[in-house]
Structure formats: C-alpha cells, structure tokens
Design a protein that fits this description.
heterodimer, A: 323 residues, alpha/beta, Rossmann fold, 2 domains, 10 helices, 10 strands, B: 263 residues, mainly alpha, MetI-like fold, 11 helices, 76% helix, globular
Chain lengths: 323, 263
Amino acid sequence: MSATSEAGPDGSSAASSPDPPSPAGGDASWPSRPGPAAGPGDGFLDDGSLSAPLGAADAGASVVFENVGHTYPLNGRGRGRGRGRGTEAVQDFSASLAPGSLVCLLGPSGCGKSTILNILAGFERPTKGRVLVGGREVAGPGPDRGVVFQEPNLLPWRRVVENITLGPDLAGKSKAGTLAAARRYLELTGLEGFENHAPYELSGGMRQRVALARAWISEPPILVMDEPFGALDAQTRITMQELLVSIWEKTGSTILFVTHDVDEALFLADRILIISPRPGRLALDVPSPLPRPRTYESLVVDPVHARLKREILLAMRQPDWVI
Amino acid sequence: MSRLGRGLSKPGTAAVGAASVTLFVLAWSLAGRLELLSPLILPPPEEIWDSTLELLDLGYHKTPLWKHVGVSLARAAAAFVLAVGSGVPLGLAMGLFPVLSSALEPFVQFLRPLPKIALIPLAILWLGIGEVSKIFLIYLSTLFTVVVGAAAAVGGVGEGKIRLGRALGATNFQLVRHFILPASLPGIFTSVRLAVGVGWTTLIAAEMVAAQSGMGWMVMNASAYMRTDLVMLGIILLGCTGYLLDLLLVLLERLAVPWAGKE
C-alpha cells in the first residue's frame, strides 16, 4: 500500500504540512520516486462540505488516488463471459494532491493520463482502487469537480453569458447573483463585450476562455483539465496559461491538468506527475521548485528550470520508462 | 457553398436558376411549335397555360382549382402535423431508452421501407373511404422517417455534451431539456424535411382512395380522359407546392436552430 492508506476517508490526518511539498532548494529532493515517501501528509477538507464559499482563498479539496487501475473491456463480445484481456489503460496509480495545488499529469498520447482524469471527473469507474475527493469516494460526475475539456464544448444555442452561467442555472441559483458572478468572470477572462455573442462567433481561444469561465463560476474545489489549450496557437496558449494561473491564485481550487507538453507542465505546475506509456503508471513524481510568479521569459534563463526540463526530457526518453 | 469553382452571390444564384428554367420552358415551347411531339404526349406550355386559365374560371369537375390545391394541402398538413407530433416524441424516447428502441426497432424497420400503396386495401377496410384513410396513408409514410431521424439525432448528440451536463450536476430531466433536446433539433429538422418530401409523394396514392378532389386525384382523373395538359398542370402544381413546403420548413429551421451546422 502507499501513503494514501494512512489517510482513509474517515481519518482526517488534519493539516500538518501545508501546500505542495516544497523541495528545500537542493536537487536531492527531486525527482523523487513515487511510493510511500512521495505522499505528502494531506490536509483534508474535513468539514465534509465540498461547496466552499465563493472566492475563498483556500477553497481547494484534496484528491487521493488509491491504487487506481483501469482496463477497458474488449470491443464486441469476447468469448468466455468477458474473460478477455481488454486494454489496460492505467495500472496501480497512487498519488495524493494537496488542497489548492496545481498538478500536471504529463505523458505521451495514449498513456492513460486522460483516463486518470476521467476517473477523477467521474466519467469512468476505476476497475481497481478508488479515488477520494476531500475524503469522500468518487462515485460519479458532480459539480464539486469542474471539467474543462479538450474542445470548448460550448452550447451553440446559448449566448456566451448563458454558457458561463450554465452550472448555476442548472443548480437553480438566483439570476441576480449568477449574473454578478458571470460579470466577474467575463472580466477575468477578458470577454467583456462578448457576453451576448453566439459561441460560434468567437475565435478558438475565446471559446476556450468561455469554457474556463463556465468551469470556474461555480468555484468548484477541484478542477480537472484535459489538454484544454492543446488546439490553440502558441501565442494564445501562453496567454491562456497565464490566465489560468492568475485565476487559480485567486480561487485556490485544486487543479489536475493533463498535458503532453513539457513546457506547459513546467510553467503551470506545483508538481508534475509523469505517466509512462500504456499501461499508464506513475513514472516520476516531480515537485517543482520554480518560484511564482513565473513568466516564460524568466523561465527560459532560469538554470533550475533548465535542469528540471532536462531531467524530465531524459526520463521521458527511457525505453522502459518506469524508473 | 462552393467546393470547386467560384461561388455565386445570392441574387446571382437566383438569376442563374431563373435563366435555366426560362431556357427550359422556351425549348419546350419550341418543340411544341415545330410539332416535334404530339400534344397528346407532351402538350406545349402555352396549352397548359390556356387550360390553367380555363380551370381557374370553371374549375375541374365543378370544383375550383384552388380548392383542389387546398384539399390536398389540408390532407398532407394534417398528416404531417400528426406525424411530427407523434414521431418526434417517439423517436426521442427511442433514442433515450435503449430498451424501447430494441422493442420498437423491428416494427419501425419493417414498416419504414414498405410501399405504403400496399396498405391502401387495409386502410379502406379499417378506416373507410373518407378523409381519415387518406390522412392515415400520408401519416404512415411520413411517420417512420421522422421516428428514425429523431432517434438518430439523439444518438448523435456528442458524448462531450452529456459529460458536460453530468459534470455540471444536471439531473436526467435537465440533461434532456438543456442538452440532448436542443442538440438533436438540427437533426430532427433534417429528418422532418426528408419525411415531408416522402409524405408528399404519397399524396397521389392517398387520393386514389375514392377521392373527388385534390391535386393527386385530378392527375389520375385527367389521365383517364387523356387530358395530358391537365395531367401536366397537376404535376406542376404538385411540384411547386412541394417545393414551397420545403422552403417553409427551411425558413422554420433557420428561425428555430440558427446554430445548425455552425459548431
């Protein structure tokens, strides 16, 4: 078992260590191996409620993956009552995300990182192990975990502002409060003046901003993001990454961000979990020592960043991956 | 619009269309004047025009021309409204509930391609020779295309939309009301357009059932008297009315689902 077992759903191993594990400057602490040593002592949100007050500074919840495995069944009818092998996408994945941390899942296409994300979002049930959010086992999708998809996934029959207020509207929140919040997020995402446009009248980057605002307006304790900027051009992607960090710093959600882009992970993450090719396993757990605020201009001349990037690139070159 | 070659402006498209129709009518008229074809086989447009004026004046079999058009339209419209009103909910339900779909699929797939003319004897037997059996035939030929189209539209709603709804905490009802239904609307409109086209073609068959009026009946009746000019007139009227019906549906679609095809 791993570190996660000592912090069961009942046990509130109450906030002993604060936010993401901060390596004490020295290189010795990273990259650290996955396993018992890597698990930070999580502070669970032990008030039990997943709906944190709006705009609270530390609104994030903890996330614990306990030996999660996922095997997709074979397509069609396998003989012998589905005893066929199927495709193993994720194998024995364990990790604890500290509340309010921004964690990137980094790995090549098809390595199972999206499956891990879908399991946290509740779209897929793990075939082994379980996922705990704020100490509670994930049983399905829910509004406590906001999702930003690869595509903006906007509803074309709703105007921009109506897309943003979709979550609160479904929850039956009052119109006035919702609109005020929508205005705030329109401003934060730089979409003022476009609230009454139809989604298909916007550029790709603006559409993804609407998707961000839609996920954020409910201020969920957890946000899961599946390569949300993958389809954007390099310039827009940087703008969106900066936007993501700036809003994250205001809302304090715990973010699990899936990407295959090393630079994106280095720019965003408190901690980078490198996933090996299928079946996805935790290959390397890399806490980021890079200080914030970060900019691409400063990172590019930062020797720590350069070493870290080299280490990650080398790790991802290993033929056999799990190291 | 254009995949190859240069596209045309809207008035340009209309002008080219009008010119090609005019050219066609002129050639047709010329063929008549040169007596290339017997008027019995292909009456020239002038003759049809004269017969049209005559019919407008006297009516066909004592029924005014507009009434023939109106009667046919009323039969078709009643059938279409019933077919859409029952077919869309049924198709949606089949798209939403796999068990229902599995239970009804054999019937739908059996009846949909069945030539509805084959049902005329049964329609008369069950429903008599009044309006009901005529509407019933048009209804049946429209219904299944709508059902299959609506079910397919639900099936075609992207997994992403469903996941989005679930992630935002939508209840099953909200999922249908705010995600699945609006996302299926463009597909439903397409299937209704197709279905109306199919239903309109069944009009003639329906009006073979002891009718005394209607465009379809007029065509059948005129052919019995070798009035090829009136057969042609009936065909032109049927074609034009069908075209207008489709234009009406396109207009409705633009109003109801302005986002269609723009995602």
